[in-house]
TrEMBL record:
Sites of 4-aspartylphosphate modification: D51
InterPro entries with a match to the protein in the record: CheY-like_superfamily, OmpR/PhoB-type_DNA-bd, Sig_transdc_resp-reg_receiver, WalR-like, WH-like_DNA-bd_sf
Natural source organism: Tenggerimyces flavus
PANTHER family according to UniProt: REGULATOR OF RPOS, TRANSCRIPTIONAL REGULATORY PROTEIN CUTR
Pfam family, one: Response_reg
UniProt cross-references to CDD domains, sorted A to Z: trans_reg_C
Protein name: Response regulator transcription factor
């Protein structure tokens, strides 16, 4: 689950990113519209948190670019302008949701979760497979009815494996969806995270390693 935060107020942008990372999202940052378009050209995102009043390229133009592209990213537009006409204008150019500043981070993350579900209409809010039950909104996991405490990356990897519904998820796909753009593509962080996840989920193991292909929950 990968998010692009585009906000020219760096302190606010960094704070949003930190908040969302605590909820197990992979977050990339751009501080102007030009940088946002560069990242959108090379990365796939589930949600773009987009400030409207951006330097270099205006947020409206970034939003239009997203809407006109084959990408399926949802747009949550942020702005200091709270008038109804401003919200209507933002939605008219293709934004999926609109949040005026100042806002509570809890509301922002709730709206992000809602947009994520729109991108995956076939998925249930609570994921279940092989005795595992995962609630993304509550950030909670149970194995055979017993709670399991997971670190953020472990939780995010498990989300991707459960959403695959038994299909194999490759090392590269997990890097793309769970870690941000700064991760070393040759790192062993996926293998280590899966190893820790498997241990915490207990016996019998439910996370399988498929040699040369990736991982799955059987």
């Amino acid at each position: 689950m990968r998010i692009l935060v585009v906000e020219d107020e760096r302190i606010l942008a960094d704070a949003i990113a930190e908040w969302l990372r605590r909820e197990s999202f992979a977050v990339d940052l751009a501080y102007d519209g030009g940088a946002a378009l560069e990242r959108l050209a090379v990365n796939s995102y589930d949600v773009v948190v987009l400030d409207r009043d951006l330097p270099v390229v205006h947020g409206d133009e970034v939003c239009r670019s997203i809407v006109s592209s084959p990408a399926t990213a949802r747009v949550l537009m942020l702005t200091a302008a709270a008038a109804v006409r401003d919200r209507v204008a933002g939605l008219a150019i293709g934004a999926d949701d609109y949040l005026p500043k100042p806002f509570a981070f809890a509301e922002l993350s709730a709206r992000v979760h809602t947009l994520m579900r729109r991108n995956q209409p076939a998925q249930q809010p609570v994921l279940e497979r092989a005795g595992i039950r995962l609630d993304p909104l509550r950030h909670a996991v149970w194995r055979d009815g017993e709670p399991v405490e997971l670190a953020n990356r472990e939780f995010a990897v498990l989300v991707e494996l459960l959403r695959a519904n038994g299909a194999i998820v490759s090392h590269e796909e997990l890097l793309e969806r769970v870690w941000d753009e700064h991760i070393d593509p040759f790192t062993n962080v996926v293998r280590v995270t899966v190893m820790k996840l498997r241990k915490k989920l207990g016996e019998p193991p439910v996370v399988q390693t498929v040699t040369g292909a990736g991982y799955r929950v059987s």
